[in-house]
Amino acid sequence: MDQRFRNYTDWQDTADTLHLFLQMAGKVKLARSYKRPEWAHVRLDTTIQGIGTGIIPAEGCNFEIYFNLAQHHVDVQNSLGVRVRIPLLDGLSVADFHRELMASLDMIGTPTPINTTPQEFHDPTPFDRDTKHRSYDRDAVELFLANLQFAYRSLSGFLAPMRGKVDMPAFWFGTMDLSGNVYSGQPAPYSGTDPIGRNGFDEKFFEVGFWPGDTKMTAPSFYALPYPFLADIGSYGSLLAPTAAQFLAQESEFVFRLEDAFAAPDPQQAVEEFCRSSFGILQRVDRWKDLDWITEPLTYGS
């Protein structure tokens, strides 16, 4: 297992460029897909070589957009066998990619205009006018992909045995993170008015994820986010593990840095321990009604 990583600031130019490329694909999926609760219809699939939209429905045929981050190209293809390939190269600007993506969608017969304003991103420059972001470091992208693969395995180990409604890890184009949720089945209406929160927070859940860092917190980290949000965990902080993990009250989330996970004797086990202990603390603070059933061990034989 590759245990290298880069802080966000060490590859920010490439990270931001890739983030905006992925946002465009995500917005195409958003425009075309059937709506699902908790924004599940905008999640992108993580595969062994990259990130893709999965099947997007369209008139006459389906299509997909796939970012091969191991071989550094994007395939825009439909179910009739028509494919356009966009090479991912250093110097390809966000505006260039937007033009090529829109042209590719036209060529495969699925033209899809999108809102060109970036989503949950620190620079509001519209995609079609962004010539600033144009960096593509192949080594940094491949390392990011390796980190995503590790995160997928580790988060899946925690989420897989949970009963009821569970989202396995997938990629969110807005915040550039990989995450999955386990839901309680208990309604918990959101008090805010913003559309992202109003549609994303409607029942009690526990989210675990990984993000590569951002302008506010540069260290790539795992996180656990309970909803309703926790302002304080009281005396239960001693139950949080491993010892390097933290609860950030201001952010209402638990955090465990990738660097600390890789320093553990068994990195995957350390991430799973972080997820389990955070979930355990949540249940001490606000126990779910059907917790015993949700966590009842599976009975599959070996």
State the separation between the terminal residues, measured CA to CA: 25 Å
* Beta-strand content: 15-25%
What is the spatial order of strands in the main beta sheet? 6-7-8-9-11-10
Query: How many individual domains?
Result: 2
SSE succession: HEEEEEHHEEHEEEEHHH
Provide mean pLDDT, rounded.
96
> Would you identify the regions where 5 or more consecutive residues have pLDDT less than 50?
none
- Main pleated-sheet profile: 6 strands, antiparallel
Radius of gyration over all CA atoms, rounded: 20 Å
The proportion of residues forming helix, as a percent range, comes to 25-40%
Kindly state the number of beta strands.
Answer: 11
Classification by helices and strands: alpha+beta
Number of distinct helices:
7
Written description of the protein model:
This protein has 302 residues and is an alpha+beta fold. It has two domains: 8-129; 138-294, no CATH class. It has seven helices and eleven strands. A six-stranded antiparallel sheet has the order 6-7-8-9-11-10. Helix 1 runs parallel beside helix 2 (94-107) and helix 3 (138-159) crosses helix 6. The relative contact order is 0.13.
How would you briefly describe this protein structure?
With 302 residues, this protein is α+β, with helices and mostly antiparallel strands. It contains seven helices and eleven strands. The two termini are 25 Å apart.
